[in-house]
Amino acid sequence: MARRFAAQGRDLALCARRLPELEALRDELLAAHPGIRVSVRTLDVDDHAAVERVFEEFRAEFDGLDRVIVNAGIGKGALVGTGRSWANIATATTNFVSALAQAEAALRIFRDQNAGHLVLISSMSAVRGLPGKKAAYSASKAGLTTLGESLATELRRSPIAVTTIQPGFIATDMSAQADDAQLVVPLERGVRAMVEAIESERVRVCVPQWPWRALNLVLPLLPRTVMARLG
Question: What is d(CA 96, CA 74) in angstroms, rounded to the nearest whole number?
Answer without folding.
Answer: 10
